[in-house]
Amino acid sequence: KGVLSRTPLHFQKDYEAHLLESGFRLPNGKANPSLYPVADTYKMATRIENIRHFNMVSQDVLRDLRRQVQRVRLYSSADPREHQLFPLIYLAILTIWAASLVHRTVHKSTRAALLVTVVAVAGWVTMRFIKYQVPVFAATINGLLWYSYYLFQLALPLGLLWLAWSIDKTEDTVLPPTWFGVLCLVNALLFLLVLTNFHHQQIFVFNVKQTGWESNYTYGLLYPLVLAGTGLPFLGALILLLFKSKRNPRKGAMVFPLALCAILIIYSYGYITRVPIAWNSDVTMVTGVISMFFVESAIRSGLVPVNSKYLPLVRHSSLRMQIIESGKRVHMSSDRAISLPEGDISQLLAASPHRLLYDEDTLIFAREIIGGYVVWQEDIGPLHQLQRQVEASIQNLTMVNRLLNQEAQIKQAAYEESAQRILWSQIETEMQEPTDQLKIRISELHTQLDALPAGQSSSVAVRQSVALLALLMCYIKRRFNLFFQEKEMTDYELKDYAHYFDELAEIAGYSGLRIFITMERNGSIGSQQGTLLYDFFYMIAGWAAEHACSPVLVTLELTETEILLRHMLTIEIEIPERIKEQVAALGGTVISKDLEDAYGITLVLSREVVAND
Question: How far apart are CA 273 and CA 267, in angstroms?
């Protein structure tokens, strides 16, 4: 504490005694020891080394002073930065929530009421945001912004009342009745009364010239009217919701909106009576959040329907259906449904979930649902007519079926014979070249045996021919197996498929050819690719055995998209045109490389199955 002046000050002679009595420290250091620490406890202030860090930390001084020292603003924004941040976050959430309400609500009147409620809350928060941007010394502007709160505070309960009224109204009823307009007019007059409070001081009583008047005020004689304009429509909305939800089967879910109403009432009372926990909070934000939760909980609990289209849906439905309440009163009915007497309804509900035969051509079904029963009628007259037609048709079909069975047997026999001819024709086409080679090998072997000298049973040439003949016969045998498996379109398991390669390599060994095979043993390959790989391998093995091209290195490798069959030979080989055409048909390629001391051939095929042309 102290006095600062630009001009010399003249005091009474005993001014020092008065200063000490008022709690001031004298220029000579003399002071009341109960108010000021002794001189030894004072220390020199530390010089700030990092001014940027100090400025950053000092931004939170006001917030920390209020919350940690003064213990105020614990539940609301405490500094200008939070005054701006909190409403912006809240408005963003409110906007997203409002969009979801518009999306979920189809009834025009309900949607309009929800929008009024959202606009009231958003406007209230926006005015609060603007007010915190105005300097404190602008008393008139601050007061008018404060009074403008009540425009939205008085509109919010009217929006909830409109929402409660619109729940059970039809689609063409949008605007509320005349009494609602009277309430709007009354609340508008109350707002004008609040807006002119500077002139009459009947709503809030304060001294505008006093510092902190916006917090240090009392309520005037007419303030209860403003409370009534806020509380009575809200109470009326709550009563309407409870009255219209008496048929709601989810009675337990109503606890949530009722609890939120109780919280809002307790909070409002605490704020008016200035209970610290309520007075130190932000009434705008708290009321807005509670209102949001109240509307959402009312929707979730069934108090506020978010879609009323089911009424015309049932009425114009092509189904002959009705919804009957627990008291056996028809709640909704389609235009095509038959009106049932009360006695028939009781009999039907007693038989539920079974069916009841109303007349010769009408069946009535009932199933229990929440709050009542759903009843639907089915016309079985067309079924009776259809049954008679079916009985007559059965006699005709019995005779026709007998003739058709005989015809089918004849066609089946002809089809099987035709299929066998086609199958053998395909076998002959595919195996024509190997069988021709077999005939040539046998003829050559006979010629070599006849040329042997008397008493000699074998020779190197004979053994070579026998080995090549055995290799060809093994290929023909396995090629038949692969042909039928390819027709079945089944994949080859590599652990079984590898035996075919090993078998050819073993028989080729009798001709002096050594084949070393390295291949995958896990996984599978397509039937078409497997057949072509076997043809290609035999082509290499047969040629190498005949031309004494030993050894041969073979590697079968599988990638995610390709199959690679690599061969390493000592001399170059010419690939037959038949093999090249088969490779091209499957979209594959053959890569040949001259490796100086060796010759490499690689067959590359896609792992995707290619259909036969």
Answer: 10
Joined tokens for residue 523: 């996984």
Over residues 391-407, mean pLDDT: 83
> Which residue from 247, 103, 244 is spatially nearest to 168, judged by alpha carbons?
244
Q: How far apart are CA 541 and CA 549, in angstroms?
A: 9
Is the pLDDT at 613 greater than 60? The verdict is no
Distance (Å, whole) CA 93 – CA 122: 10
**CATH entry 1.10.8.60 includes domain 467-606:** no
pLDDT, tens digit, 9 for 90 and up, residues 355-383: 767 777 777 777 777 667 777 777 777 88
**Where residue 184 falls among pLDDT bands split at 50, 70, 90?**
very high
What is the rounded distance in angstroms from the CA atom of residue 221 to the CA atom of residue 165?
32
* pLDDT at residue 1, as a whole number: 46
What is the 8-class DSSP label of residue 595? Answer: -
Q: Which two tokens stand for residue 465?
A: 């021919």
Supply the Cα-derived Rg of the chain in whole angstroms: 49
* Closest to 463 (Cα-Cα) out of 511, 515, 514, 513: 511
The answer for residues whose C-beta is within 8 angstroms of residue 274's C-beta and 6 or more apart is none
The DSSP bridge pattern shows strands 204-205 and 552-558 to be unpaired
Query: Is residue 515 within a helix (H) or strand (E), and if so which, with residue range?
Result: strand 515-519
Residue ranges of the domains in the chain? 1-39, 80-300, 310-379, 467-606
The answer to whether 129 and 84 have CB atoms below 8 angstroms apart is: yes
Which ranges constitute the DSSP H helices of 166-254? 178-195, 197-200, 223-244
* Alpha carbon of residue 458 to chain centroid: 80
- Give which of 591, 590, 598 is closest to 551, Cα–Cα: 598
- Please state, in angstroms and rounded to a whole number, the distance separating the CA atoms of residues 65 and 71: 8
State the average pLDDT over residues 36-49.
75
- Give the Cα separation of 208 and 140 in Å (integer): 9
pTM (2 d.p.): 0.45
Task: Locate 199 and state its tokens.
Answer: 């002139």
202: left (phi over 0), alpha (psi -120 to 50) or beta: alpha
Beta strand 492-493 with 515-519 is unpaired
Kindly give the pairing relationship between strand 552-558 and strand 515-519: parallel
Spatial separation of the C-alpha atoms in residues 339 and 531, rounded to whole Å: 73
Whole-number mean pLDDT of the chain? 80
Cα–Cα distance for residue pair 439/431, rounded to 1 Å: 12
| Region 310-379: CATH code | 3.40.1840
3-state SS class at 377: strand
Higher pLDDT, 280 or 549: 549
3-state secondary structure 424-455: HHHHHHHCHHHHHHHHHHHHHHHHHHHCCCCC
Residue 505 contacts residue 498 (beta carbons within 8 Å): no
Which pLDDT belongs to residue 609? 59
